[in-house]
UniProtKB/TrEMBL annotation:
InterPro entries: AAA_SelU (IPR058840), Arch_SelU_Cterm (IPR030815), P-loop_NTPase (IPR027417), SelU (IPR017582). GO terms for molecular function: tRNA 2-selenouridine synthase activity. Residues 10-181 form the tRNA 2-selenouridine synthase AAA domain. One of its GO terms (biological process) is tRNA wobble uridine modification. This is tRNA 2-selenouridine synthase AAA domain-containing protein. Pfam families: AAA_SelU.
């Protein structure tokens, strides 16, 4: 595969603020937004509520548009999503962004645990009883697609917490049992070129923006 641009990758745990950072960087830099192309937030609950996840053909078409646009600029910023994205129905991601070796620079985002849980809470908190039923149904669908006993028990507990409106405790369990193993597997594989502790969004954006500009200036 011939790579025609510099790729700056954002890595980090679910809920660390990568999507918010990417949104702000998009104002000044070329971005390939995989979640936007898929019309999902990227996690197992990514197409929750108002989002309708695209099918594979639609996803690839949108992704190709953004890649071609970025190639004209000679570089892009992308949030690493792995080889697949989506909930029960997974979309396969182009080898360009699925392969860790294709990322020229790897930027690792970290944040306080409390901030992480609050982001997850804000993302999934239902606004009414109708959305609450949708949230529960998503976990029921997810449960039917999995086999590990530990995860199945965790999903049952998450559903019970949601039914009792204990959303904060549900968010803790979602992070611990559904997300942590996945994102830690990736974090262990990379050697970060920049580590940003995201306890202040504007400060984090400034640090990353300056890092990108300095690396582009060196080329």
């Amino acid at each position: 595969m011939v790579i025609l641009m510099i790729i700056f990758g954002l890595f980090g745990k679910t809920g660390c603020g990568k999507t918010e950072i990417l949104k702000e960087l998009k104002k000044h830099h070329p971005v390939v937004d995989i979640e936007e192309c898929a019309n999902t937030r990227g996690s197992v609950l990514g197409d929750l509520y108002h989002l309708r996840q695209r099918n594979q053909e639609e996803f690839e078409k949108e992704l190709d548009k953004q890649i071609k646009k970025a190639e004209k600029e000679g570089y892009c910023i992308v949030e690493y999503e792995g080889r697949k994205i989506g909930g029960v129905e997974k979309l396969k991601i182009s080898g360009l962004f699925a392969n860790l070796n294709n990322y020229t620079y790897k930027i690792l985002i970290d944040c306080p645990y409390e901030c992480q849980i609050n982001r997850l809470l804000n993302q999934y908190l239902p606004k009414n009883e109708y959305e609450k039923r949708i949230l529960i149904s998503k976990f029921e669908l997810l449960r039917n697609s999995l086999k590990r006993e530990e995860i199945l028990k965790a999903i049952d507990e998450i559903i019970k917490l949601i039914e009792k409106d204990e959303y904060y405790n549900a968010a803790i369990l979602i992070e611990e049992k559904l997300y942590r193993e996945h994102y830690m597997r990736t974090i262990r594989k990379i050697q970060a070129d920049l580590i940003v502790y995201n306890d202040d969004l504007n400060k984090s954006i400034k640090i990353i923006d300056e890092f990108i500009k300095s690396k582009l200036a060196d080329r």
